[in-house]
Amino acid sequence: MSFATIELAREGRVGIIRLNRPQALNALCDQLVAELGSALDDLEADENIGAIILTGSEKAFAAGADIKEMQSRGFVDVLVTDFISKGWERVATCRKPVVAAVAGFALGGGCEMAMMCDIIIAAENAKFGQPEITLGIIPGAGGTQRLTRAIGKAKAMDLVLTGRMMDAAEAERSGLVARIVPAEKLMEEALAVASRIAGFSLPIVLMAKESVNRAFESSLAEGIKFERRLFHAAFATEDQKEGMAAFVEKRKPAFRHR
Ligand code: CAA
């Protein structure tokens, strides 16, 4: 399948999606969001893919929703078409792990899209922010919600109300970013992380991701119960037998993935 606003590649068991609208700093126009959705559909359905990387360019992961596309829209239009809901949440609903490899600007919808991923790896030049307030709107793809859960109320209020950017170091200190690497090492690191994940048992990886995400949606007691059920279910897989046998026999496990 060919795309106009993204590039899709496969490297081993890793699917790599690169946002590719350099003339607009990867602003997330409707076409890009639709193409991103179909690339994720492809990769999710592909049994040879165990993890996905979402990345942009050296200058921008994504500078937000496309302001030029939004500029003339009105309340009734965005309400009736449910603008942002459709397509945008596709990254968050992906069941396979998604690693965001972020260099340059991750602003507005770009920051929100990175936060829909499971692990954010940032280049040293990465900049995160929710500048919507400067445009006379508020974040609309989870910025007030996921950011607050990720970095707490004090920092989230600071970013959302002032529209300022935070650099990679502050983002890591705040808990938004998992790792920072030199810009030239970004894809190497993201690929190493995604390949490592993709080498594990896919059903177990799916369970682990689902269980961590449950922490955001439930009380501690419910979350623990959910985790326990999945933990028990892991013992029904061949990969549990293989993983434990390999440990005891002092060899590398050969997971079946399915
Ligand atoms: N939408 C549309 N076009 C954008 C864009 C966006 N979000 N961000 C950048 N561009 C375009 C610029 O208009 C410019 O195009 P032209 O050459 O045709 O003028 C091109 O990309 C390069 O941008 P700049 O010349 O501005 O580059 P810069 O290096 O001087 O500045 C920047 C970079 C600070 C990121 C600046 O482009 C900027 O502030 N962008 C907008 C960031 C923003 O406000 N994002 C939030 C969008 S709203 C949103 O995302 C809502 C939501 O919650 C879903």
Automatic annotation (TrEMBL):
It catalyses: a 4-saturated-(3S)-3-hydroxyacyl-CoA = a (3E)-enoyl-CoA + H2O; a (3S)-3-hydroxyacyl-CoA = a (2E)-enoyl-CoA + H2O. InterPro entries: ClpP/crotonase-like_dom_sf (IPR029045), Enoyl-CoA_hyd/isom_CS (IPR018376), Enoyl-CoA_hydra/iso (IPR001753), Enoyl-CoA_hydra_C (IPR014748). The keyword Lyase applies. GO terms for molecular function: enoyl-CoA hydratase activity. Its EC number is 4.2.1.17. GO terms for biological process: fatty acid beta-oxidation. PROSITE patterns: ENOYL_COA_HYDRATASE (PS00166). Keywords: Fatty acid metabolism, Lipid metabolism, Lyase. The keyword Membrane does not apply. Could possibly oxidize fatty acids using specific components. Belongs to the enoyl-CoA hydratase/isomerase family. This is enoyl-CoA hydratase. It comes from Dongia mobilis. The lineage of its organism: Bacteria, Pseudomonadati, Pseudomonadota, Alphaproteobacteria, Rhodospirillales.
